[in-house]
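input
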Amino acid sequence: MTISCIIKRIAREIGFGRFFLRLRRFFGKPGARYEIEFWLYRFRWLRLIEKTRPIHTGDHSAQFCVRYLVGETQVLEAVWSAKSLFLADHRMTACHLVWHDDGTLGEAGKLILLNHFPNSQCILTHESDVVARRLLGPSSNNLRDSMPVSRKLFDFNLMNNGMHFLQVDTDVLFFDVVDEILEEINSQNPRIRYNDDAPDSVSFAYDVAYIRQRTGISLRRFNGGLVMVPCGSVDLKQVEEHLNLLGVPAYPWPLEQTLLALQCERGGGSPLSSLYDVLERSWPKVSSEHYYHLSRRNMYRIGYPIIWEKLKLAGLVP
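output
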């Protein structure tokens, strides 16, 4: 097949207008993900984690768990993130580590995750689908099917087995102890704790005034990349009600984050301190860093080399 045939086929698949818009953006204003530097650092560092030794964590009898939503293209990033957590705070190795399939995780990816963390658990889509079909309402199931990232909200809570848990995105790295999170976990009445989103980020799927009008709840900036969720703090029946109340979102991609933020405010949750950073606003005085959007390049350029040195000091690099 010639290059011109490939271009025509892609244009037909996504629409000619959208195709030329993306082409213009690529050449005119590519963004960090399309810069050569981004891919050079990614190529150099990402696969190095495969050479490291496994880390043993707690099993199903643990009192607390860490949960990741992982797709096939995020497997190695997930390994980097989890190993950075256990290196930064050895107390976290007592937790149970759980991987949730976003619908794309293959057998090869699953084996990599389980080889690096032998006591961890991998929940595949077909397992969680059975539970979701039985327990979620129609609007929740529609969202879960159409937007895989929403499985963080639904699957993490449906498959939880009565544990408090820390939900972590694969582009979060840890550099120091997580005292604030562990103190909340061990408190008598733990609440949801979360990253405070950057002021110029789109935190919610609707205007905050509209959300307040429809639900009676006022939201603060919220980022779902790192969230401590106490057992029972998310009411999935109320999530269904909120979906029906709010209707079609103005910005679909943060809908799951919006619904979790509503649950957080309902239960009196609060943001973590600036030590749990987003977009390098407090770098380098951080316990964790969420490298999303334009800061993603620095996860490979700055974050991974720091974690690599820690892996070597810990004897995890052969």
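quick obs: The chain has one domain: 47-313.
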